[in-house]
Design goal:
Blueprint (H helix, E strand, L loop, with lengths): L1 E4 L5 H13 L3 E11 L3 E4 L5 E8 L1 E5 L4 E5 L3 E3 L6 E4 L9 E2 H7 L15 E6 L4 E10 L7 H4 L3 E4 L2
Length: about 160
């Protein structure tokens, strides 16, 4: 199930959302700007954090075990349960799959761990040389102890302008 959120203009609604995020002790970290050229396929293993993706230009597909999310410029997707998934180009059938950790290792960057802060956004390039998409990749984490069970069961949330 995909919940689509639209820009909220009501200040009161934003205050409620801000309070909910504060109560969850949410932290976020943008750790990579991915410039991917078609065709491409990147694996992301399951984790205890909620990964998010913001498509700055082009398009991307996020595939989980249960769902496929097609994202276009301006879209934002959060996978609250941190399940394993793949980020791909729309035409990725022949693209070799590479893990995000391997791409980070190639650039000499340590993969994210709780409490870590990157001094600057990591610039990653990957793909087959076709049309380019640019995606911000980051995470939300929810302090210690781990998120409440309701947070783990939350459906993916996508924002479309």
């Amino acid at each position: 199930m995909c919940v689509r959120l639209y820009f909220i203009r009501d200040r009161l609604a934003m205050n409620v959302i801000d309070q909910i995020l504060a109560d969850l002790r949410q932290e976020s970290c943008v750790f990579c700007r991915l410039a991917a050229t078609d065709p491409w396929r990147i694996q992301k293993s399951a984790s205890s954090v909620a990964p998010f993706y913001a498509v700055l230009s082009g398009k991307a597909r996020i595939e989980t075990a249960d769902s496929v999310y097609d994202l276009y410029e301006g879209d934002f997707l959060v996978l609250p349960s941190g399940e394993s998934h793949e980020m791909t180009s729309f035409d990725s059938a022949n693209a070799p799959s590479v893990s995000l950790v391997a791409l980070l290792n190639e650039t000499g960057v340590e993969p994210y761990r709780r409490g870590m802060r990157y001094r600057e956004v990591v610039q990653l390039q990957h793909g087959g040389g076709g049309s380019q998409s640019v995606i911000l990749v980051g995470i939300f984490s929810f302090g210690d102890p781990p998120p409440k069970p309701a947070t783990h069961r939350a459906a993916a949330c996508a924002c479309h302008p």
